[in-house]
Specification:
about 350 residues, alpha+beta, Alpha-Beta Plaits, 10-stranded mixed sheet, about 30% strand, binds zinc ion
């Protein structure tokens, strides 16, 4: 015969004899204490939380037997409703079924509560003002980050934009960081345009860093600046990382034997659909294939011995190769146009056509 505790009996439409509980073994009566322990796990600066409850298989099986006799609300639905209500009233925070700032997880087997913190995500645009920075953390290949002679004990080949942005955030929030950006520039390329990124902080202890202070601290180093910082949601990471935008580059070009007036005129008029085979220098990490990209010179002038050209190009265009021709792997190129060797001496990203993100991210 099935007998139930008061709490379990209340979930069923038909009455059950009360007694030692065939379903929960009396645990439901102690839910209040568990809810209080769970409420203590809500972070000090959380605005909202969600809950989940793990019910042992034996309990669910016993419940099935009671359902054979009467319709009712399942123990899981009941527990989630009970815990969310209790935690909300004790902590004063909003219950957000779809996520919130973290999840309080109740376990009926061990009768314990633990928490899982939702990652923090911040959108922004970064400018890289100096050459010699990689975009993401780049461990030394020889020592794998421990530090050796090759890397001068630093454990890495370059300081990265990711670290310069991430460290001031983590100083304020704790946790660990990684950056998702829309494309990347090479180590030796600066970027004054502002490249969209999302910085992700996992397991933060605190969720509300002062963004103006963070931006100030990043800029203080003189290497990287960020703007437009704002908190975004989970779906926005892909939106930013998978979006590719046309860009304007400024390239300083050395022409073999020195650029003539005619060379400058020809470069000025360049507007072509390119066939670009994967450059030699990235072959080790990219599939070898031919891409079609459009590139157009929007402005060109002499800058000392070099030609300075502003080039508007489709996302994914290899600019150094557009200039040099990469041994014929990019056609046409400035080199093929002039019939002379051309080399990119310095390169900067000066504009990224990414206004669309401001519309979507609000
Ligand atoms: Zn019970
Ligand atoms: Zn090393």
């Amino acid at each position: 015969m099935i007998t139930l505790c008061k709490e379990c009996a209340s979930r069923f439409e038909k009455p059950f004899p009360l007694g030692e509980c065939s379903i929960c073994g009396g645990k439901m009566a102690k839910m209040g204490g568990l809810a209080e322990r769970g409420a203590l796990l809500v972070g000090g600066d959380w605005d909202s939380f969600s809950v989940s409850t793990t019910i042992p298989r034996g309990v669910l099986a016993a419940e099935e037997k009671a359902f054979d006799y009467s319709p009712g609300e399942s123990i899981k639905t009941f527990a989630n409703r009970y815990f969310s209500g209790k935690v909300a009233s004790i902590s004063g925070r909003k219950y957000e079924p779809s996520g919130g700032d973290g999840r309080i997880m109740f376990d009926f087997r061990s009768f314990t509560a633990r928490r899982e913190v939702e990652p923090l995500l911040f959108f922004g645009r970064y400018r890289k003002l100096k050459e010699g920075l990689s975009q993401t953390k780049w461990d030394c290949r020889k020592c794998g980050g421990r530090g050796c002679e090759r890397c001068g004990g630093e454990g890495r080949m370059y300081r990265s934009v990711e670290e310069i942005i991430g460290e001031p955030f983590v100083k304020r929030t704790k946790g660990s960081f990684c950056m998702h950006a829309s494309g990347r520039e090479d180590v030796d390329v600066v970027n004054t345009a502002g490249r969209p990124f999302v910085l992700e902080i996992t397991n933060p202890e605190s969720r509300k860093p002062n963004l103006a202070e963070v931006a100030q601290e990043i800029a203080a180093g003189g290497e990287v600046e960020v703007s437009d910082l704002k908190k975004v949601g989970r779906g926005d990471v892909e939106l930013v990382a998978d979006s590719h935008f046309p860009k304007t580059y400024r390239a300083w070009i050395e022409v073999e034997g020195g650029a003539t007036k005619e060379d400058l005129e020809r470069i000025s008029g360049f507007s072509e659909m390119l066939k670009q085979q994967t450059p030699n220098r990235v072959m080790h990490r990219r599939a070898d294939k031919v891409r079609e990209r459009h590139a157009e010179v929007v402005d060109a002038k002499m800058d000392g011995e070099l030609v300075s050209a502003d080039i508007l190009a489709d996302a994914g265009t290899y600019i150094k190769e557009l200039i040099s021709g990469d041994g014929g792997r990019t056609l046409p190129s400035f080199a093929s146009l002039l019939g002379k060797g051309c080399a990119c001496r310095k390169l900067a990203v000066v504009k990224i056509e990414d206004e669309f993100l401001d519309l979507v991210l609000g």
